[in-house]
Amino acid sequence: MAQVRDVAALAGVSPATVSNALNHPSKVSPDTFARIQAAIDELGYIRNDAARQLRAGTNRAIGMIVLDIGNPFFTDVARGVEDVLLDQQRPLILGNSAQQPARETNYLDLFEQQRMDGVLITPVGDVLDRLRRLRDRGTSVVLVDRMTRAKEFSSVALDDKMGGRIATEHLLATGRERIVFIGGPAKITQVKTRLAAARLAVEQHGGAAELTFVETDAMNAEAGRAGVEQLLALPAKQRPDAVFAANDLIALGVLQALTLAGLRVPDDIAIIGYDDIDFAASAAIPLSSVRQPAHDMGSVAARTLIGVIADPAGSKVQHVTLKPQLVVRRSTGG
Amino acid sequence: MAQVRDVAALAGVSPATVSNALNHPSKVSPDTFARIQAAIDELGYIRNDAARQLRAGTNRAIGMIVLDIGNPFFTDVARGVEDVLLDQQRPLILGNSAQQPARETNYLDLFEQQRMDGVLITPVGDVLDRLRRLRDRGTSVVLVDRMTRAKEFSSVALDDKMGGRIATEHLLATGRERIVFIGGPAKITQVKTRLAAARLAVEQHGGAAELTFVETDAMNAEAGRAGVEQLLALPAKQRPDAVFAANDLIALGVLQALTLAGLRVPDDIAIIGYDDIDFAASAAIPLSSVRQPAHDMGSVAARTLIGVIADPAGSKVQHVTLKPQLVVRRSTGG
C-alpha cells in the first residue's frame, strides 16, 4: 500500500510537505497542492487515520448514546447530530442503551478504549463519575435532553415545563374540563415535569377543571392501551373528556383503544400527545402534539460538542434549553 | 498516562505477559492475570485502540449504511446488528444515506479512511466499484436487503416474492376482488418484486379478481394519502375493495385518508401493509401486514460479516434469504 514517502517521491516534494498538504492545506502553494493531489490519486494513497489518531492521541469519531433507537424522537435527534458531523467529516458512532444501565456502561467502555474526541449522551444510569473520567482523559462530553445534578457538563435540553403548560392550556381553552394525564413511570424526569406543569395550569384555570394521573410502566403504545382500560372501567359520567399523553407513542395507543371501544375522537374524548413524531401527523385521526425541536437539539448538541473539543479548557459550560411548540390537529378539534 | 511497561513493573511481570493478558487471556495463569488486572485498575491504564489498530492495520469498528433512519424497519435491522456486535465488543458506526448517493459516498470515504474491519450496506447508488476497492484494501463487505448484479459479496435479503404473494392471497381468500397496489417509485426493487408477485397471485386466482397499480413517488405516509386521493376520485362502483400498500408507512397514510373521507376499514376497504413495524399494530385500526424479520436480518448479516472478517479468503460467498410472515389484524377483518 502506498505511503506518504511514495507520494512525496512522485510529487517531487519532501514527506513533510505532503503531511502539510494533508493537514494544513493553506501552508502549501496551490501548484504544489495540485501535484501532491495528482500523486495521491495515481498511487491510490489513503491516509491512515489510525496513525494520525495515535500521534494525536484521540479519534475523530463522535460517540452518541441514545435511550431508545426505536423511538423516532431519538432518531430525529441523531439525524440532527449526523448532519453537523458529516460536514466535519466526523463519523458518528451510535449506541442504543435501550434504557439499560449495563448497555450504557458497555458503550462508555468502548468509547473510552477508542479515545474518542467527544461523546453525546442521554444518561440512563448514574454515570457522572464515568463521564468525569472520560473528560479527564481528553474526551469532551455534552449531555442531551437530560440535565444532571452536576452542572459541570454543557447540555442541550428541552423546556418540558412549557410543553406541559401549553398542552394543558390548549385543552382547557377548547372547553375540556376532565383531563387525564397518562404516562410513566412517574420518576422519569420528563414525565414528572410535564405532569407538574399540567397540574399547575389546571389549578390556575380554576372552575370545574380537574386533572387525574394514570401512571404507566413504560412510554409506548401498549402502555397507552393499558391506561385507557382503566378509564373505560369508569361510569360514563366520570370519564375524562381529554387525554394528555406523556408522549406520542402513548397517544397512538390511546387513540387505538378508544377507537376500538367505539368512542369518537375528538367528539367524546380529545387527545394530545408529545414530541410530534411523524406518526402523530399520519395517525388515522391526526394527533395534536407538542413539537419538540428534536433535529435542532441534535444539531445544537453537535455544534456545542465541537466547540468544547476545539477548546476544552477555554470553552464555557453552556446549558441551552430549546422551546417546544403547540401543534393543533383533528384529535383536539383542530 | 500509564503505559504497558508501568503495568508490567507494578505486577512484577514482563510487558509481553501484560500484552498476552490483554490479547490472549487464556495464555496467562489466573494468578498472574489477577495481578495484572489489579495493576491495571490501580494505574488506570487504558489500552490504546489506536496503537493496536495501527499494528493490525484495521479498526475493530463495523460501519453500516442504511437507507432511511426515520423508517423503523431500518432501526430494527440496526438493533439486530448491534446486539451481535455488542457481544463482540465491536462498536457500530451507523450512517444514514437518506437514499442520497452523495451521502452514501461520503460515508464510504470515511469508512475507507478508518480502515474498518467490515461494512454492512444497503446500497442506493452504483457503488460496486467502491465496494470492491474497500474489499481489496482489507475491509469485509456484506450486503443487506438488496442484491446487486454481482454475486461476489455475501448478502442477506428478504423474500419479497413470497411476501407479495401471501399478502395478495390473503386478500383474495377473504373475498376481496378489486385490489389496488399502492407504492413506488416502480423502479425500486422491492416495489417491483412485490407488485409482480401480487399480479401473478391475482392471475392464478382467476375469476373476477383484478389488480390496479397506483404508483407513488416515495414510500411514506404522505405518498399513501396522495394515492388514496386518486381512488376517491373514482365513481363508488369502481372503487377498490382492498389496498395492498408497498410498506406500512404508506398503509398508515392510506388508513388516515380513508378514515378522514368517512370510509370504513375494513368494511368498505381492507388494507394490508408490509414490514410489520410497531406502528402497524398500534394504528387506530390495527393493520394487517407482512412481517419482515428485520431484527433477525440484522443479526444474520452481522454474524455473516464476522465470519468473512475472520477468514476473508476462505469464507464462501453466501446469499441468505429470510422468509416473511403474514400477520392478520383488524384492517383486513382479522
From TrEMBL, chains A, B:
The record's listing under InterPro entries reads: HTH_LacI (IPR000843), LacI/GalR-like_sensor (IPR046335), Lambda_DNA-bd_dom_sf (IPR010982), Peripla_BP_I (IPR028082)
What GO terms are given for molecular function? DNA-binding transcription factor activity; transcription cis-regulatory region binding
The highest taxon in the source lineage is Bacteria
Concerning Gene3D superfamilies, the annotation shows:
3.40.50.2300, lambda repressor-like DNA-binding domains
Q: What is this protein called?
A: Substrate-binding domain-containing protein
